[in-house]
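Data card: per-record layout.
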Amino acid sequence: LYDPATSITASSWELLHLLYDGLTEMDENMQPVPGLATAWETPDPLTYLFTIREGVTFHNGRTMTPADVAGSLSRLVDPATGSFFAGQMGKITAVTVEPDNRVKITLAEPWAPMLGALSS
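The structure for this 120-residue chain is written out next.
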């Protein structure tokens, strides 16, 4: 019910928004701004490279790592998860942990709404 990858009701989304953060957030002008990612680059239309915020902890005190981010995104787009949100992410072909506290998302084709989708 409160799994961010599989919840499908508006009431769940309202609660989940209070519990989880996205890599990006949307500002008052609906422009993407940093969230769990402090910065990002798009070296080409198929690649997003996110620098992950340091010092973020889970409720149990464990520090969030780029591997956690990559694992969450990979699970989200895995067809076995059956996530409603997978379609909003475009056609992700790979999510990898990169040096310097970064995560790379590789797409099969350009997806303009990617930064907005990552705020959900």
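Known properties of this structure: The chain has a mean pLDDT of 90. The radius of gyration is 14 Å.

See the next section for split statistics.
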